Queue: 2 jobs
Job 1
Amino acid sequence: ERSMRGELDFHESIRERVGMLKGLPETAITKTIDNLTYTGGAVTLVKTMRAHGVICALVTGGFTQFAEWAGETCGFNHTYSNTLGIEDGILTGEVLGDILDKHLKRQILEDLAQENNIGIVDTMAIGDGANDMLMIEKSGHGVGFNPKPVLAEVSDSIIRYTDLKTVLYIQGYSDNDFS
């Protein structure tokens, strides 16, 4: 929570939190996934955007197993996340590779725009915490979804009382356009 508010370094926070998972069986991930639910409107948002030819990427400071599950179910074109260390079916308590932080999130936005010949002004990013700030600032339109105060300050739009379908309305879609 402190990291989401920008009060604690994300790298420090994620290492500390992942360290607490050391020794858990990998099956704990599956059990967690089995009990997950989507944020309201997420599936409709991604499926509608994809139906209208938009490239959608899930860029999260969360972990690969969860991001791949969400990416597959919602229909994202790309997923980017952190990788949990697992050896012999047991979590090591480490994050493997580069930690997907606010700088890497911004870089992924820039790279995807460039690779797909999309002007950065024509991009949209949605986030909720401090780790999303640079991506939100860089995008053509940054949406804070139930944002922490630090993110709300830099967001072009803020959604607090409705679900993610509101992002479709922001772009001019109507209910008839939803997939």
Note: Helices lie at 10-19, 27-34, 42-51, 64-74, 102-115, 133-138, 149-152, 166-170.
Job 2
Amino acid sequence: MTTVTYVTRKFKQPYGGFLKVSEFEMAQFGDDIVLNDGETLHPSIIGMATQYLSEFMLGEKKEEVFKVSLQGAYNVGLHNPSILYLENIQGLDDNSIINACRLSGYDVIYRMGRDFYRPVEDFMIDQNTIENIKTMVNRSVKFFNDNGPVIDSGMTFEGAYTHKIRNGDGDILTADGLWDMKVSKNKITNKHTLQVLVYYLMGLRSSNRERFKQVERIGFFNPRLNVSYFKYIKSIPSEIIQTVEREVIGY
């Protein structure tokens, strides 16, 4: 596998990482909502459904938001049920969330292969899980509306892939920032900070490079913890950028 995620997880960084987590500015948000315990879906499905529904609620077309899921379903002859799930995603009502979770389950086919797929019709999606996803999507929409406008989401990097990285897609691009969504109970690590830096550097060499030239900061939003982290590009030493371009990406 030569995705951005895989390469940045495996790359041996110097002590503390190229971009230390402590160097990122953190902001904690509050809405007086406590998420429910005991979710009934795998965290990866909840994460994808939360991210995709957030992009949809921020104005992206659902066909674009769920394009990887649809392609995964198509690859194994499950196009028809995937279209039905897509058609039943209308907003942030319970039925839309359930269908988004099932549709997100096809992602793994495209990204990792059929052997990792589990039948989406067997997903147990209880009310606690639905309510948590709804809360996290609402948090995400508020964050990106406050820090937007959103310019693009689910960006790929045509023209920027290399022999080391042949696949990968970013999360959300705003007028001044490139943001990665993390829906985890854990804090970010230096593997995550390297990942978002790689997305930014690849964006500068992609067919959408003009959009990335406007980026002033890279960061993360975690709707589960309701926290954001970011770092200004101008504060990253040029020698780190050059090393990552050469050794991690392969430029």
Note: The two ends are 18 Å apart (CA to CA).
